[in-house]
């Protein structure tokens, strides 16, 4: 809590400074994963590689020219689709199409934290390329603020983050007390549990929900290894969010229900399993994703 | 070859091994239900949890291992006999690639991997084998074992690439396939066994009358013809049996490599290269190897599990190297 | 050194001072034709991408003339990609040719003996398992070398040909393949996606150091391969014939194998496992040359041609989604291989 308030203070201070000196307002240095990037002015032609960058840009009212087909399919993530409109696809997450990106003549490229070095080398020749530090375990506000700073929208980003904080504070009052939750992905060979230190876990904890022990123990990997059905009880909690990359979470739930080991879980017996969109729940981060997750939680848990 | 065992002795030894491994598979696991509790559960007096783990989870898994091991062991021997090539592996004929491709296609069209209709993968395996069969029927290519295997490899490559292409299109499927592509016995739906048993039985039924012609074929085309067997028909039938067996195994557990390569090796070392002797032994050895690998997969990284396909590769490859180093490769 | 006298009509002699070179007519024609095809397709690929350029503008941009946009497009994107395709294709083609001849088995590609899988496993490990600062391509290089050394060491005594070498190679390859699959299944999806190009083979944004290293390696490797070819083509018949003709079998085998590993390792460090090039290019060269020699240079040319064409196809078929070159080579290459197999059904394998 202290860290976030400190950060917020620092950001507010920066925002204040920026406002008071309009000439300097545009010039800024961003400390990225591959070194610092100098930027000036408000970028007009943005290419957002990856859903987190796209989420940040769209939530800040910036319409990127291009983005990648997400891991969920052959288009941008469907929860961003409506806002993104007719956006040009410039390749897939696995293989960004460099020539297609160049053809858009970007003046800013926002990439995800795990952009390979070789791609960064090429992209940064085309336009300033911002790769946030810290990967998936980073506080999501920080990643979001980095994108916002690059877009010259730091002030608005503060507002967005504050909106989330307000909503969380309000929602927290309506949450049941002392409840434990776990986020599980069901795969053909068995489930794994998502680390509680990722974006979703960060949100759930600020809501006052406790993490499952196994999820809390995943401090370096985004999720555990596949859990043996004999040990399935270890993913049990008061509430289980069952995620799949398929937007239709029902199917994963149906699969899981075919396993007697799954139906023996406390949460399943109490009918407290909620199927959710794994695209948002297991890999996204950002303002729009946060609103989605809070919607899901509110629908399921809030009194 | 070193001292060979007589067939009944080898069979007895393998059967004993199999029993021991079945017991081990029931008693050992990745969970908290230990050896003693498992034994109690087997004898009928233990708590509910232990009984559930041993009698439901481990038992279902052991049954599946028996089935898949049987299919892969048998398929390996048949395939090596018919191609007369000790390198021949079900994967090389395009059978595994066919099955994988069918699964990718099925998931792509909307079926989720776990609830996959097992018939789809079997059909894919059949398709893979049919394509190879077509090739073998063309202008005498079938008489050359090297070329036959090479054609299979080309098909495998083609189907594998088509799978990758589909996965490129649909990354949700790709993410599911990441787990399916390493075969495993864990987490299979309960009805897997009842679906795949007919496939196994059918495959074995097709193979049974072919043992004699195959043994004759090992002595050469002319000898086989002279003894009144039809070489081409024999090949066709055997490949059909292989497709059925491998298709069933792949559908049930995903692609598990190396069993079809390792089992015939061990069998040949024990009782010589005559298929009339190796086939029966392999049907026992296949489940042995798979059960051993599966039990190991639960113990190595407790409380997690390794996919058994990884274990079979890690157990199989060194054995294969040891065998090839210790002996000149027998000509088939 | 004894001479075998070939039918003179099929050959011509090239004299340069004291040196003379016996050229096989058909292979020389084929080589010339392939070079021409390479030049034309390179020009085509440089000019006609998603952003249309005239060949002239592309050529000017390649030499530093033109507007910044074009310069960036040609010099930073297309030329490096073209070079990495040309180099890796040539290296894989030559390596495949060497190994197939050596092992007297068309199945014996670098992929079959585990080099591809070794490179993939190490590269994937550097991305998903141990996120080090080491570049994936450096690790791919060491992975290929590790797999080759393991295969050599474990097959020791069995010679470089025959089944033992291949079987050991298959085993090593399977080990690395299983390790790769395991790592991918344990990795989170983002890391798995980042590792993807290394599992299928791709030419998208390859590290330039690796490309230059490969270029240098080819410069040394191809002439060496050409020198080894005579010995190799004699060894094709049988050991006794080769010994009778004065070939030092053991030395030649070791040298050819080392060369093959050298070329493959450098190529997969750039492009990842594009195994089918090594399988198809020699077949294509043999088919074009229509003789039972060891067309190592033509195989290299075929490999380069196949690689750049496949990459071009992959970039444009589903644009803007790129299909990695490894998938294209497999889809195009496998049927071609089958066709070759069926066509020369009655001939013996090399």
TrEMBL record, chain A:
Residues 147-174 form a coiled coil. It is found in: Cell envelope. This is Iron complex transport system substrate-binding protein. Its main location: other. InterPro entries: ABC_transptr_periplasmic_BD, Bact_iron-sidero_bind. Transmembrane segments: none annotated. Gene3D superfamilies: Nitrogenase molybdenum iron protein domain. Belongs to the bacterial solute-binding protein 8 family. Residues 45-303 form the Fe/B12 periplasmic-binding domain. Keywords: Coiled coil, Ion transport, Iron, Iron transport, Signal, Transport. SUPFAM superfamilies: Helical backbone' metal receptor.
From TrEMBL, chain B:
It comes from the Bacteria. PANTHER family: FE(3+) DICITRATE TRANSPORT SYSTEM PERMEASE PROTEIN FECC-RELATED (PTHR30472:SF1), FERRIC ENTEROBACTIN TRANSPORT SYSTEM PERMEASE PROTEIN (PTHR30472). The keyword Cell membrane applies. It is found in: Cell membrane. InterPro entries: ABC_BtuC-like (IPR037294), ABC_transptr_permease_BtuC (IPR000522). The chain crosses the membrane at residues 62-79, 91-110, 116-136, 148-169, 195-219, 239-267, 279-301, 308-327. The keyword Cell membrane applies. Keywords: Cell membrane, Membrane, Transmembrane, Transmembrane helix, Transport. It is a multi-pass membrane protein. Belongs to the binding-protein-dependent transport system permease family. FecCD subfamily. Its main location: membrane. This is Iron complex transport system permease protein.
From TrEMBL, chain C:
This is Iron complex transport system permease protein. Its main location: membrane. SUPFAM superfamilies: ABC transporter involved in vitamin B12 uptake, BtuC (SSF81345). Keywords: Cell membrane, Membrane, Transmembrane, Transmembrane helix, Transport. It comes from the Bacteria. InterPro entries: ABC_BtuC-like, ABC_transptr_permease_BtuC. Pfam families: FecCD. Belongs to the binding-protein-dependent transport system permease family. FecCD subfamily. It is a multi-pass membrane protein. The chain crosses the membrane at residues 30-50, 79-99, 111-132, 138-158, 165-184, 210-233, 254-281, 293-313, 325-342. It comes from Pseudomonas cuatrocienegasensis. It is found in: Cell membrane.
């Amino acid at each position: 809590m202290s860290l976030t308030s400190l950060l917020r203070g620092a950001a507010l201070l920066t925002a204040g400074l920026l406002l008071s000196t309009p000439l300097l307002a545009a010039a800024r240095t961003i400390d990225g994963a591959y070194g610092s990037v100098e930027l000036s002015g408000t970028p007009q032609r943005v290419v957002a590689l990856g859903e987190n960058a796209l989420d940040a840009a769209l939530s800040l009212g910036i319409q990127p020219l291009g983005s990648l087909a997400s891991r969920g399919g052959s288009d941008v993530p469907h929860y961003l689709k409506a806002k993104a409109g007719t956006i040009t696809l410039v390749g897939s997450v696995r293989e960004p199409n460099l020539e297609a990106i160049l053809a858009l003549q970007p003046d800013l490229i926002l990439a995800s934290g795990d952009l390979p070095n070789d791609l960064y080398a090429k992209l940064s020749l085309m336009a300033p390329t911002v790769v946030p530090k810290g990967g998936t375990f980073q506080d999501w506000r920080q990643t979001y603020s980095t994108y916002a700073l690059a877009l010259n929208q730091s002030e608005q980003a503060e507002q967005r983050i504050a909106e989330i904080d307000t909503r969380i504070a309000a929602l927290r009052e309506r949450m049941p007390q002392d409840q434990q939750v776990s986020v599980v992905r069901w795969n053909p060979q068995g489930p794994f549990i998502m680390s509680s230190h990722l974006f979703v876990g960060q949100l759930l904890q600020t809501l006052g929900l406790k993490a499952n022990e196994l999820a809390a123990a995943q401090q370096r990997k985004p999720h555990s290894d596949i859990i043996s059905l004999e040990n399935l009880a270890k993913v049990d909690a008061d509430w289980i969010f069952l995620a799949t990359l398929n937007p239709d979470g029902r199917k994963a739930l149906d699969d899981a229900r075919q396993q007697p080991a799954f139906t023996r879980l406390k949460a399943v017996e109490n009918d407290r399993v909620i199927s959710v969109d794994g695209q948002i729940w297991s890999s996204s981060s950002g303002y729009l994703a946060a609103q989605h997750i809070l919607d899901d939680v509110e629908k399921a848990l809030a009194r | 070859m070193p001292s060979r065992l007589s067939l009944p002795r080898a069979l007895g030894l393998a059967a004993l091994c199999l029993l021991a491994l079945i017991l081990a598979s029931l008693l050992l696991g990745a969970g908290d239900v230990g050896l003693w509790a498992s034994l109690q559960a087997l004898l009928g007096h233990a708590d509910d949890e232990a009984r559930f783990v041993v009698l439901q989870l481990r038992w279902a898994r052991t049954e599946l291992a028996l089935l898949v091991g049987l299919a892969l062991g048998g398929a390996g021997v048949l395939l090596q006999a018919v191609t007369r090539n000790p390198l021949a592996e079900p994967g090389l004929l395009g059978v595994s690639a066919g099955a994988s491709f069918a699964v990718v296609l099925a998931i792509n069209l909307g079926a989720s991997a776990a609830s996959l209709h097992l018939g789809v993968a079997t059909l894919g395996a059949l398709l893979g084998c049919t394509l190879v069969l077509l090739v073998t029927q063309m202008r005498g290519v079938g008489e050359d074992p090297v070329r036959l295997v090479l054609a299979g490899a080309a098909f495998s490559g083609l189907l594998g690439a088509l799978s990758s292409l589909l996965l490129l299109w649909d990354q949700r499927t790709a993410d599911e396939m990441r787990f399916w592509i390493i075969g495993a016995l864990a987490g299979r739906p309960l009805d897997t066994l009842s679906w795949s048993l007919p496939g196994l039985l059918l495959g074995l039924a097709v193979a049974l009358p072919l043992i004699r012609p195959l043994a004759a074929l090992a002595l050469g085309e002319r000898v086989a013809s002279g003894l009144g067997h039809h070489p081409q028909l024999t090949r066709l039938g055997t490949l059909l049996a292989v497709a059925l067996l491998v298709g069933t195994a792949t559908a049930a557990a995903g692609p598990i490599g190396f069993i079809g390569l390792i089992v015939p090796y061990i069998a040949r070392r024990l009782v010589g290269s005559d298929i009339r002797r190796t086939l029966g032994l392999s049907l026992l050895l296949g489940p042995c190897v798979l059960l051993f690998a599966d039990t190991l997969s639960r113990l190595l990284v407790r409380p997690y599990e390794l996919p058994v396909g990884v274990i079979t590769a890690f157990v199989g490859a060194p054995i294969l190297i040891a065998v090839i180093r210790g002996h000149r490769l027998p000509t088939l | 050194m004894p001479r075998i006298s070939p039918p003179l009509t099929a050959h011509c002699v090239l004299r340069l001072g004291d040196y003379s070179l016996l050229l096989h007519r058909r292979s020389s024609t084929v080589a010339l034709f392939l070079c021409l095809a390479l030049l034309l397709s390179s020009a085509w690929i440089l000019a006609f991408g998603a952003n249309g350029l005239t060949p002239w503008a592309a050529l000017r941009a390649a030499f530093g003339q033109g507007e910044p946009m074009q310069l960036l497009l040609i010099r930073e994107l297309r030329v490096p990609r073209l070079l990495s395709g040309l180099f890796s294709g040539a290296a894989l083609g030559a390596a495949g040719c060497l190994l197939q001849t050596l092992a007297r088995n068309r199945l014996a590609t670098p992929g079959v003996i585990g080099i591809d899988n070794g490179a993939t496993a190490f590269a994937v490990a550097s991305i998903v398992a141990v996120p080090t600062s080491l570049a994936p391509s450096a690790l791919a290089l060491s992975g290929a070398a590790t797999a080759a050394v393991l295969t050599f060491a474990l097959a020791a005594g069995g010679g470089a040909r025959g089944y033992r070498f291949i079987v050991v190679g298959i085993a090593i390859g399977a080990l690395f393949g299983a390790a790769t699959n395991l790592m991918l299944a344990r990795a989170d999806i983002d890391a798995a996606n980042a590792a993807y190009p290394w599992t299928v083979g791709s030419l998208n944004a390859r590290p330039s150091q690796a490309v230059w290293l490969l270029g240098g390696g080819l410069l040394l490797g191809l002439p060496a391969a050409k020198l080894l070819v005579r010995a190799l083509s004699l060894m094709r018949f049988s050991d006794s014939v080769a010994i009778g003709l004065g070939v030092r079998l053991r030395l030649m085998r070791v040298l050819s194998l080392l060369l093959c590993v050298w070329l493959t390792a450098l190529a997969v460090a750039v492009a990842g496992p594009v195994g089918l090039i090594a399988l198809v290019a020699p077949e294509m060269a043999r088919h074009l040359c229509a003789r039972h020699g060891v067309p190592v240079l033509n195989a290299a040319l075929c490999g380069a041609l196949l690689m750049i064409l496949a990459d071009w196809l992959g970039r444009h078929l589903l644009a803007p989604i790129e299909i990695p070159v490894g998938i294209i080579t497999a889809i195009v290459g496998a049927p071609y291989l089958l066709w070759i197999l069926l066509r020369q059904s009655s001939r013996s394998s090399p």
